[in-house]
Structures are given as C-alpha cells and as structure tokens.
Amino acid sequence: MGVAKQLYQLQEFDLKIESNEQSLKQVTSQLGESKAVVRVQKQLQLEQQRLEELRHKQHSAEWEIDDLVTKVAVAEETLFSGRIKNPKELTNLQHEVEALKAKRDQLEEKALEIIDQVEQSEASVARISSELETLKAEWQHQQQQLSDEVEQLKATLSDLRQKWQLLSAEIEPPTVEFYQELRKGKGTAVAKVEQGICRGCRISLPTTELQRARSGSLVQCSSCGRILFLA
Ligand SMILES: [Zn+2]
After folding, report:
1. Span from the CA of 214 to the centroid of ligand 1 (angstroms)
2. Cα(80) to centroid(ligand 1), Å
3. pTM for the whole thing?
4. Ligand 1 mean position to 213 CA, how many Å?
5. Which of 18, 87, 93, 112 is deepest in the core (most CB within 10 A)?
6. Is the distance from CB of 119 to CB of 58 less than 8 angstroms?
7. Tens-digit pLDDT profile for residues 25-50
C-alpha cells in the first residue's frame, strides 16, 4: 500500500474519531438533572404547602363553629329555662343568641368556601403529582438511552483509536508527524485526486505532479499543499 493511501485511511479514522468525540460531548451534556422535573417538583411542593395551610384554616373554622354552637345551645337553654324572669334580661339574652347565631352562619359560609378551596387544591396536587410521575418516567427512560449511547460511542472511539495506532505504526514516524501538522493547519491533510483535480482545492493538477503521485511517492498539491492520493 502506498504511503498516500495509508495516510488517507489514517485521515478517515481521524475524521471518524472527531465526529464521534463531538457526538459523545453532545450526548454527555444531556445527561443529568431535568429542568422540567425540577420545575414541576417545585410546583408540587408549593401546592402541597397551600393545601396544608387551607386544611389548617378549615379546622380552625370548624373549631370556632363548634364553639359557637355550644354557646348558642347554652344561651338558648337559659333563655327557655324560665329561670330568668326579668324582661330586660330576657331581651338582652335573646339578642345575644341572635348575634351568636348570625356569627355562626357567617362562619359556616366561610368554612364552606374553604372546603371548596381545599377540594380544588387536592385536585391540583393529584394532577401535578401525576404529571411529575410521567415526567420522571420519561426522563429516566431518556437517561437510560443516553447512557447506552455514551457506552456505544466510547466503545466505537476506543476501536477507532486502536485502528489508528495499528495503521500509524506501519508508517514512518516523521511522515505521521508531517501529516498531523498538515491536518492541524488545513483540517484535511490528504486530498483525493479525481479526474486530474485535487479535491482539496479543486485545482487541475499538472501532469508531472500526477505522474509522481501515481508512482507512489509522497506528493503535495502545488496549489493547496495537501498530500495527493490517487484512488
Ligand atoms: Zn490542492
């Protein structure tokens, strides 16, 4: 095998290695925490907190109502017991019972509103929890796929690097160094020649250059400086 062909194959390995390294970087950057999961987790936490506060408000209102119900019962018992004879005292007590009842009714209405809010909040918590479960499952699935992809890419890269080593060992070290220097500057160091044209710069090559390249010696394009490879 001519050295130009060997260098061309070495370049093929290098290009594949580069592209796989790029993919590996891209896939690796997708591994880790999910922004969507974190956002919904926070949302759930806030709603759960709100629900707890509402339940607390509901219980406070219920205790207050119980207290008023007891007070009304005691006052009414006194009112209808016949123990109080004084008409003014009776009227006062009657007013007191009415005021307590009005307050109780008002609180009962408020308690109903709170219960309604509690129910709405419970529904929200259930909805967000289910959304979070779905997101987490999707995320885990995706992470698993990405991890598999990372493993695959690492294996491919290791295989390519091994092939690169084996091939480069067959070439004179100064030639490999020359190739690497050229690649650093131009991206591609070896250009295919097709129909007398250098594919690196698309310039028609002089016949003498083509003949020298065909003979197997290392020839650089007189225009772009790339190593010429006649397939
Ligand atoms: Zn060229």
Report:
1. 16
2. 115
3. 0.71
4. 13
5. 93
6. no
7. 999 999 998 999 999 999 999 999 99
